[in-house]
Amino acid sequence: MVDQALLEIGSDNSLLLVDDDEVFLKRLAKAMEKRGFAVETAESVAAGRAIATARPPAYAVVDLRLDDGNGLDVVEVLQDKREDCRVVILTGYGAIATAVAAVKAGATDYLAKPADAQDIVNALLSERGELPPPPENPMSADRVRWEHIQRIYELCDRNVSETARRLNMHRRTLQRILAKRSPR
């Protein structure tokens, strides 16, 4: 599969990854390097904009919500500096309105977190207007639900009561879910 990806990437394999989740960013960078990309990373809108201005990449994967602002600001700079840049927006806050805004700003695709590295590559390399192939091993609905609950739990600083309130569920139900192992 790596050889196929190398053929599809082309001669300019520069890739900008912008995400404020340091662990995810490092893991994704390593996975994309294995697939033939020359990766540069940024953990903020400011850093992403600086790289996009100085060295506009051929490809970019940008988180929608970053600590210092909106990832769409990086997408706008990328489109100004390099119109042919293929951009994929990643977000844990999937909504139709933000997907539309991302595409209008110039994004090629919009994927919900957690996204598999191969799904990201497929989205980056798909032709405009062409849908990438469906994932080989998509997460189960139970796993997606569990990931979402875990993410909200972490964002609420592991406060069960606040997480339950935000998820609109009973606190005891949430405690039972958190006590279980993650589904496959």
TrEMBL record:
Q: Which InterPro entries match?
A: ActR_PrrA_rreg, Bact_response_regulator, CheY-like_superfamily, Sig_transdc_resp-reg_receiver
Protein name in UniProt: Photosynthetic apparatus regulatory protein RegA
- Keywords assigned by UniProt? Activator, DNA-binding, Phosphoprotein, Transcription, Transcription regulation, Two-component regulatory system
Q: Would you kindly state one Gene Ontology biological process term found in this protein's UniProt entry?
A: phosphorelay signal transduction system
A Pfam family this protein belongs to?
A: Response_reg
Organism of this sequence: Cognatishimia activa
Q: Which PANTHER family match?
A: PROTEIN PILG, STRESS RESPONSE REGULATOR PROTEIN 1
* Positions of modified residues (4-aspartylphosphate): D63
